[in-house]
Design brief:
5-stranded parallel β-sheet; 4-stranded antiparallel β-sheet; about 220 residues; alpha/beta; OmpR/PhoB-type_DNA-bd; globular; transcription regulation; 9 helices; 11 strands
């Protein structure tokens, strides 16, 4: 999930729509609401956040260092001001990157992946047996051949790969794929997506790489 903070609801809704087309869940906040949320959110909710995008906010309203106290997810400023002084102030405030608008959603996703990779939090891809799972929106490969997947199934596979070695619950998968504030989608939809994903992987691999245990969740295995 990506968190977007901007004074203008129209902007947060616009970015949410664009990210949704890429299969990436979002949550939009006004600056005042965001400060209260990030200081009180549960650790499990914050672990679902892939990055924070900070747009037009009153100076001082958002503290990247406050975010850093709770999570290591990248903080990226979206700037409409093309001046060196403004860019330097944003970096001095503690953001990881400054992106000048307009910018394509895929470029933002690529920058997020690059920042996480530099921090050794996320590699460009993860290999599980003969499967190579990318973290930048590309379809996975099995024995070097792409396996086209619907965006939700692809994002679930990416999330499982990013948590390789750990078991994740259905709630954690749902929060990462749909966002922690999506009340219009039932959490059980995760089971349907994973069932379809497992079938496709079994057909290509000859075995099921997703281990599931009731009440405990899912994990990728060789």
């Amino acid at each position: 999930m990506i968190v977007i903070v901007d004074e203008r609801e129209l902007v947060t809704e616009g970015y949410s729509s664009l990210f949704d087309r890429e299969g990436v869940a979002t949550a939009g906040f006004a600056p005042g609401e965001f400060g209260e949320w990030v200081s009180s959110a549960a650790d499990t909710d914050l672990r679902s956040v892939r990055a924070f995008l900070i747009g037009d906010c009153r100076e001082g309203a958002i503290s990247p260092r406050q975010i850093r106290d709770r999570t290591g997810a990248p903080v990226i400023a979206l700037s409409e001001h093309h001046s060196l002084e403004h860019t330097l102030r944003l970096f001095e405030s503690g953001v990881d990157d400054v992106v000048r608008k307009p910018v394509h959603i895929r470029e933002i996703l690529a920058r997020i992946t690059a920042i996480r990779r530099r921090g050794s939090e996320e590699a460009a891809y993860t290999e599980v047996g003969s499967m190579r799972i990318f973290m930048d929106g590309r379809d996975p490969e099995i024995d070097g051949e792409p396996l086209p997947l619907p965006r939700r199934e692809r994002r679930i596979l990416e999330y499982l790969a990013s948590n390789r070695g750990r078991r994740v619950t259905k709630t954690q998968v749902f929060n990462a794929i749909y966002g922690i504030f999506d009340e219009e989608v039932e959490e059980n939809v995760v089971e349907s997506h994973i069932s379809k994903l497992r079938k496709k992987l079994r057909e290509k691999l000859g075995h099921d790489p997703i281990d599931s245990k009731r009440f405990l969740g899912y994990r990728l295995v060789f």
